[in-house]
Write a structure and sequence with these properties.
Elements: H1 2-23, E1 28-30, E2 37-39, E3 47-51, H2 60-73, E4 77-81, E5 93-94, E6 97-98, H3 100-115, E7 119-126, H4 128-132, H5 135-148, E8 155-161, H6 174-187, E9 202-203, E10 216-219, H7 239-248, E11 258-260, E12 265-266, H8 276-288, E13 293-298, H9 322-336, E14 344-346, E15 351-353, E16 363-368, E17 373-378, E18 384-386, E19 396-402, E20 407-409, E21 415-416, E22 423-425, E23 437-443, H10 444-453
Parallel strand pairs: 3-4, 3-13, 4-7, 7-8, 10-11, 12-13
Antiparallel strand pairs: 1-2, 5-6, 9-10, 14-16, 15-18, 16-17, 17-23, 18-22, 19-20, 19-21, 19-23
């Protein structure tokens, strides 16, 4: 009898620990100004994502290493897809006949992510799946998956891969996508954030898909072609213009948060030219243009490689790509802003001269709504001029942040006492594109406090 009671007590303790672990992370929600994501307590959520789409191909020990390292580096959300076969078994099955072994592996991934303080963005498959099943089947599939994870707080629904504003042959009927979304929301009780992972070189805002999303997203392209982003005149959009389009769009009079949720991949075996500078500038451009975060991708991790291919390392070796380290720096910088992050808005009007539409020399600016400070990112060290008249304070100071080293130059000598005329800014160095800098400019006392906090 004693042995039986002991076993019961042990089981209850384990159950309590499991429930506590699952309740540690807060659910995400939209900020009051409809521009950012926040946790339930109102603290800003810094979205710094990585794609681990083919996670199922990797063994538990490798997944453990990936999640631990990404958390340490400053990443906050991992993307996975319900599509690839298990490293030791079959795939997820079909909507009407799921493979329980596969889904238990995803359960473990979600739980492990929570222990590493990571959220998980989930697509229930890829766009081709939408063509195979009816709207009724997709509703039931979404409901089943949503119900399975309704008690996990660390999930964001990405719905279905490359389905948002789908622009290929045999476009996906609206009724199918709506049915899948409704199924997820009903099964999950509708209390987690949901978007539809955008088709490549597309954004959910380009179609009615934005209406059913809690936030918009772009896949500006994991390949190589930002110049092919859609636009209705002679020139295609840049990545910052795509985000600006979303920023200015309204849904029943209100904006929706947006981000570049899948950008240039680093050391992707199919397109090896994406280096760390390409990674950095795309992130800074889109975040300061109004995006609430960014998603990085690494060859070897997204595709679950156990053997290196072309420029792609194995999943474990890919963890230390230079671009990933730099995204960690950016995450740390944004975390350091605290609730001031929620005050930022894009402010290109303060750039008077020196800007360019070239990715190698573009300048992107953002300021707080109370005008206490501004952030200006320049992809090169070319000089430019700023209109600083609206920034608060009788004396303004500037500090340079180096996005390549996560270091500060406090002795910049940049002090502005006359705000009536445009002020010439000359970033450190003289090596051109890739010598990128972020200028923190504002009231002297505010900038001092901010720099000390970081």
């Amino acid at each position: 009898m004693y042995s039986y009671l002991l076993k019961v007590l042990v089981c209850l303790c384990l159950l309590t620990v499991s429930v506590e672990l699952r309740s540690q992370m807060q659910k995400l929600k939209i900020s009051d100004n409809n521009r950012f994501l926040v946790r339930e307590d109102g603290e800003p959520f810094v979205w710094m994502g990585d794609t681990n789409w083919f996670f199922a191909k990797l063994s538990p020990s490798i997944i453990d290493s990936i999640l631990k390292k990404r958390s340490e580096q400053g990443f906050t959300i991992m993307f996975v897809s319900c599509r690839e076969k298990l490293y030791n078994g079959d795939g997820p099955g079909t909507p009407d006949n799921p493979n329980e072994q596969w889904w238990k592996y995803l359960d473990e991934y979600v739980d492990k992510s929570e222990k590493s303080n990571l959220y998980v963005g989930i697509t229930l498959g890829w766009w081709g799946l939408m063509k195979k099943y009816s709207a009724a089947d997709l509703f039931e599939y979404g409901k089943w998956v949503g119900n399975r994870y309704k008690d996990r707080n660390n999930i964001v629904w990405l719905t279905m891969g490359e389905t948002g504003s789908h622009n290929r042959d045999n476009a996906i009927p609206d009724d199918k996508l709506i049915a899948l979304v409704n199924g997820i929301r009903e099964g999950d009780t509708g209390d987690k954030l949901l978007t539809v992972h955008a088709d490549y070189q597309r954004g959910t805002s380009l179609s009615n898909d934005g209406d059913i999303c809690d936030f918009n997203n772009w896949q500006t392209s994991q390949w190589c072609c930002p110049e092919q982003l859609p636009r209705n005149d002679e020139r295609s959009w840049t990545v910052w213009e795509a985000i600006e389009f979303d920023y200015n769009k309204r849904y029943e009079g209100l904006p929706k948060p947006t981000l570049d949720s899948e950008a240039w991949y680093e050391n992707n075996k199919d397109f090896c030219e994406g280096g760390s500078f390409n990674i950095r500038r795309r992130a800074y451009f889109t975040i300061l243009a109004g995006g609430f975060g960014h998603t990085y991708g690494a060859g070897g991790i997204w595709d679950g490689l156990s053997v290196s291919e072309e420029c792609s390392e194995t999943a474990l070796n890919a963890l230390d790509y230079e671009g990933a380290v730099h995204m960690g720096y950016l995450s740390s910088f944004l975390h350091g802003l605290g609730r001031d992050l929620l005050k930022l808005y894009p402010n290109q009007g303060m750039i008077v001269s020196g800007n360019s539409d070239s990715y190698d020399s573009h300048i992107q600016a953002s300021a707080t709504v109370d005008q206490s400070f501004a952030l200006i990112y320049s992809a090169s060290d070319s000089p430019y001029e700023l209109d600083v008249a609206n920034l608060k304070g009788s004396q303004l100071s500037g500090i340079w942040y180096n996005p390549r080293t996560s270091s500060y130059q406090h002795d910049s000598g940049l002090v502005i006492t006359d705000k009536s005329n445009p002020y010439a800014i000359d970033p450190p160095g003289n090596s051109g594109a890739g010598n990128d800098w972020l200028l923190i400019l504002g009231d002297t006392e505010v900038v001092k406090k901010y720099a000390a906090k970081n």
